[in-house]
Amino acid sequence: MEVRSLHRYARISPQKARDVAREIQGMPVSVALDVLSFTPRKAALLISKTLKSALANAENNHELSVDGLVVKEAVVDVGPTFKRYKPRARGSAGPIRKRTSHIRIVLTDEPVADSKEEAPKKKSVSKASSNEPVAVADEAGEA
């Protein structure tokens, strides 16, 4: 069963929050909380709050045991941007973008398979192995 938690309009840039969110994907919840508690970034605090909210949802609403839960997804989407302007030299104005993000965490009690193992291997075909002759230009520019 999947349990979701969403923190909308978090006052942090999505680019900064995605770095922290990628670290906890696929981890058991207890390990993810430990990693977030020792990560010295603002995003770690916001993501840990959302993770704790998802834990509370799993425990109280869906009656799941906390021990077997795994972070299936930790996604940071772009929220609305507050646009402000700062006065600059010679009467001009410089734009300031105050970015927001939506943090979504999905927990599951099923084991998560690594995406690296499931991806099929592609065979590459080199150009040298083809049967067509390769034209080589000489110094005069003729092929």
Annotation keywords:
two-stranded antiparallel sheet; 4 helices; 143 residues; alpha+beta; 27% strand; Ribosomal Protein L22, Chain A
Can you characterise this structure?
The chain is of the alpha+beta class and 143 residues long. It has a single domain (2-112), classed as Ribosomal Protein L22, Chain A. 30% of the residues lie in helices and 27% in strands. The chain is built from four helices and five strands; from the N terminus they run E-H-H-H-E-E-E-E-H. The strands form two sheets. It has a three-stranded antiparallel beta sheet. It has a two-stranded antiparallel sheet with strand order 3-4. Strand 3 and strand 4 form a beta hairpin. Helix 1 crosses helix 3 (42-60). The radius of gyration is 25 Å and the shape is flat. It starts with a strand and ends in a 25-residue tail after the last helix.
Write the layout of secondary structure elements.
Elements: E1 2-10, H1 14-24, H2 29-37, H3 42-60, E2 70-78, E3 82-87, E4 93-98, E5 101-108, H4 115-118
Antiparallel strand pairs: 1-5, 2-5, 3-4
CATH fold call:
Ribosomal Protein L22, Chain A
Structural class: alpha+beta
What is the CATH first-level class name?
A: Alpha Beta
Q: What is the number of independent domains?
A: 1
Rounded mean pLDDT is: 87
Number of helices: 4
Classified in CATH, the superfamily is Ribosomal protein L22/L17
Coarse morphology:
flat
Q: Considering DSSP H and I runs of 4 or more, what fraction of the residues is helical?
A: 25-40%
Secondary-structure arrangement, i.e. CATH architecture: Alpha-Beta Complex
* Major sheet: arrangement of strands: 1-5-2
**Tally of strands:** 5
> Terminal Cα separation, in Å?
65 Å
Q: Can you summarize the main beta sheet?
A: 3 strands, antiparallel
Low-confidence stretches: none
Gyration radius (Cα, Å) is 25 Å
SSE ordering: EHHHEEEEH
Tell me what portion of residues adopts beta-strand conformation: 25-35%
